Amino acid sequence: MEKMLAEKPVNVNEEGYLLEFAQWDKDIANAIAVEEKVELRDDHWKAIEWIQSEFKKDSPLSIRGIKNSGALNIKEFYELFPGGPLKKASKIAGIPKPKSCI
Amino acid sequence: MKNLIILGAGTSGTMMANHLVSKLPKQEWNITIVDQYKTHYYQPGFLFLPFDIYKEQDVKKEGKKFIPKGVNYIQKKIEKILPKENKVQLENETIPYDLLIVATGSKIAPQETEGMNGPNWHKNIFDFYTYEGSLALRNKLRDWKGGKLVIHITEMPIKCPVAPLEFAFLADTYFRKKGMRDKVDITYVTPLSGAFTKPKATAALHYLLEEKGIKEVIDFNIDRVDYENNKIIDYADTEVEYDLLVTTPTNMGDDLIKRSEMGDQLNFIPTNKATLQSLENENIFVIGDASNIPASKAGSVAHFEAEILTENIQNYIKGKELKEEFDGHANCFIETGNGKALLIDFNYEQEPVQGSFPFAAIGPLSLLKESKLNHMGKLAFRWIYWNMLIKGIPIPFVTAKMTKKGKQITI
Ligand SMILES: Cc1cc2nc3c(=O)[nH]c(=O)nc-3n(C[C@H](O)[C@H](O)[C@H](O)COP(=O)(O)OP(=O)(O)OC[C@H]3O[C@@H](n4cnc5c(N)ncnc54)[C@H](O)[C@@H]3O)c2cc1C
User: Fold this and answer.
1) In A35, B17, B25, B325, which residue has its Cα 20 to 30 A from A24's Cα atom?
2) What is the pTM of this model?
3) Cross-chain Cβ contact B197/A99 below 8 Å
4) What's the distance, CA B290 to chain centroid?
5) Same domain, B291 and B273
6) Which CATH number is B97's domain given?
7) Quick check: is A53 catalytic?
8) Distance between CA B270 and CA B55 in Å, rounded?
9) Which of B67, B127, B289 gets mutated to test ligand 1 (max ligand atoms within 8 A of its CB)?
10) To the nearest whole angstrom, how far is the Cα of B172 from the nearest Cα of chain A?
């Protein structure tokens, strides 16, 4: 379905995840972050960029993977995106929610 | 003479040996396949072994019996691939290749999670993804008195991603038949946002968990197993207590991929998802669980890949363009307990939906709906596996590319 974010029409699924990464930009990220009650600061952007670069490499995202990569500190990651860090960060980064086949 | 080497004689490697032996000119090509073990395991059977539905002999056979005449079989450990030199280093010899197919699969890595394979591994913490784990769990369940059974997934991707959920369903039936369901508390713990994550499947199937009284703990990213106090703890400090933990540890490609410096963080090889050619080396192809393509890690997927890879190997040899054909097609039976099962059919783009299979409107198998016939299909899969699938005999009416006929697809 179509939704207006930062005054731009984008395609999202029922839960508000972007369907086309190409439609993502920083204004849209900020708009999603407001809905998720997260205020984006430098550390958030660093996390978002790292997640996007993994997504582009088709690497599956997991908390343990992030921990092992040394790219992000897990405790901080939970503090940056309280609740479900992977879900929230993925949504703001414009990439699909981690899911199984069914 | 030129050399084609297949690494791994599991589901994918055995299929490729059978396909290629009749396709490559014998005067020009030597085909060699290497595996460390004598035994070929039917891994889908590891789901049934703990519940005494299958016996040991149902899930293992001598691997060599399935390798066709005309293919050279070496039973040795593979140390390393040397992609720059086009060589493979085995235990005590090095062999050259012109073309390499990597089919070394994926396996569990419990050592990746603190406390998992410590002193209680295979005592009250089990996996059922290995023959040893599955068998040890069967022996445990035979005289377990009940308590908190926790079925857990460490992280994605895992092979056959629905197997842990099937385990939960079968456990419900198993304890009910034993007349002790009231003594067992079953909890399903997943790092995902639910046991089902695709909208259509969630809508059609969530009742299964409620009906069977299986509790769900979601978004649980395990940090460690506290084996002294019998609980698992996640990064947000959520704790889940267990008496019996059935976990699916992190799945990784074999260490040989790491030694060869060819893998990603999980030792899976970056691979073109449509042609199955490795991204780094044009004379190396990857099939089955060993690749990083975003398809399910399942035998049925490997079966569809094998058809396309067989064509692409021939194209490559003739210097023709590779076919960008693989669409991520997967086709899985899912046990739901009580002698019933579901069937799902999907690919990279299309999520599982309702309908009939393999013939539109006729079936006889129904998609995304429980039935006894689907359960018969799941059990028949073992026969098909040993007698047709790994021998490379085509399975009638089931095509490598997914069909949308007979599926209720709404856009
Ligand atoms: C519990 C469970 C249930 C499953 N259920 C289903 C199901 O219902 N349907 C379905 O389609 N799929 C199912 N699967 C998945 C299926 O079994 C796998 O996807 C399939 O076997 C993958 O084939 P493969 O050839 O890629 O890897 P494998 O069959 O695992 O083969 C890899 C081979 O490589 C060899 N090897 C690896 N490293 C080395 C080395 N260094 N030296 C020498 N040899 C090496 C191994 O010994 C092995 O024989 C299930 C799996 C499990 C564990």
Assistant:
1) B325
2) 0.95
3) yes
4) 10
5) yes
6) 3.50.50.60
7) no
8) 37
9) B289
10) 20
Express each pLDDT in A35-71 by its tens digit: 999 999 999 999 999 999 988 887 888 888 888 878 7
How deeply is B370 buried, as exposed, middle or buried, from its count of CB atoms within 10 A (0-12, 13-18, 19+)? buried
Closest-CA residue in chain B for A81?
B236
DSSP 8-state symbol, B111: G
Summarize pLDDT for A9-36 with one digit per residue, the tens: 999 988 899 999 999 999 999 999 999 9
Outline where DSSP puts E strands in B22-136.
29-35, 39-41, 60-62, 71-75, 78-82, 87-90, 94-96, 99-102, 106-108, 125-126
Say if B137 falls within a structural domain: yes
Q: List residues near ligand 1 (CB under 6 A).
A: B 8-13, 34-37, 43-44, 46-47, 77-78, 103-105, 128-129, 159-160, 163, 254, 256, 288-290, 297-300, 302, 332
- CB-side neighbour CA atoms (13 Å) of B135: 11
Alpha helix (H) ranges present in B145-298? 163-177, 199-212, 255-259
Tokens of B406: 């007979």
Query: Which has the closest alpha carbon to A96: A20, A32, A40, A28?
Result: A20
Same domain for B217 and B307? no
Q: Is there a single domain that holds both residue B274 and residue B300?
A: yes
Q: How many domains does chain B have?
A: 3
Q: What is the ipTM of this complex?
A: 0.85
* Domain presence at residue B79: yes
Domain that holds residue B188: 108-250
A100 to chain B: which residues are within 8 Å by CB? 156, 161-162, 192, 196-198
- Residue B136 shares a structural domain with residue B198: yes
